[in-house]
């Protein structure tokens, strides 16, 4: 079946499924709505004018909630002066749904000038938590994440600041994002040794065209019970199936505007092998290729929820449709084979000897 015909099957056919958030008792929808695009941003902001209006953001949130999505992720840096958090906060207040949403946000990157305008020091964390709480209009943040490791701040300092906020009732769980494996392990051990609340999630780039996490991070998450929250699951549009080898980007698409980025897909020929396999399996299951790409991630046991963005309701509905798509073992294997990476030393050596690493 052609992808155009498969587009009829965009909505989940079964009720939303929920999983544990890492090893915690909290349950989140298998797909998480990323709020990066909420609010129309200017050229100076993180989003560079690719956001949605507040009205459209509200429509996306309303529909997501109707479809069973209970997990929303944002960050203080999304939009100028915390625009995404402010839009999300106004929706929460207007709809009075705060207790039905698992609310996640992040801190780390520069929000204002000066030597302490960036980083994850204890000095700064206390202030960024309060600032996010005010913008979100809430008394607590359910999952507060360090957006990227801070090489200049010790793990113990970061964890102590976060643990104090948990004890004060300002945050519930803590997670990290864009951490090297060695740094995450160090933080987990520091938390254990000092009796502090550990990171329960890792938010990181993970998709069919970027499986580097499987060298260290995926085994780490499996061993320590850390829930993996993949971001950019569609690889900037590559895994939607609308871009094909040797063909120009469709008129009006983001890649039609970002020609240099689109040309970058060609620099890794394997990308097009992945796309062809996606398209073939999409035809078999009569779903859009994007849903197949998301379903592949949901087939991985360490994944708690997959984060996707949606600038409008149509994009939202198509992505949420992946929540009930279960690929067969044979289909997962075909996607694994098409997207396989070279593990390198010592991983290949270990796998040749005992089949794992």
Low-confidence segments, given as residue ranges, are 1-9
What is the strand arrangement across the widest sheet? 9-8-7-6-5-4-3-10
As for the number of domains, it is 1
Secondary-structure class:
alpha/beta
Total of DSSP H or I helical runs spanning 4+ residues = 14
Q: Main β-sheet: number of strands, strand sense, barrel status?
A: 8 strands, parallel
Shape: globular
Helix content: 25-40%
Pick out its properties:
disordered N terminus, 357 residues, 39% helix, two-stranded antiparallel sheet, eight-stranded parallel sheet, globular, alpha/beta, TIM Barrel
Question: What does this entry look like structurally?
Answer:
By secondary structure, the chain is an alpha/beta fold. It is 39% helix and 13% strand. The protein has 14 helices and ten strands. Helix 10 packs across helix 11 and helix 10 (270-285) packs antiparallel against helix 13 (329-338). It is globular, with a radius of gyration of 20 Å.
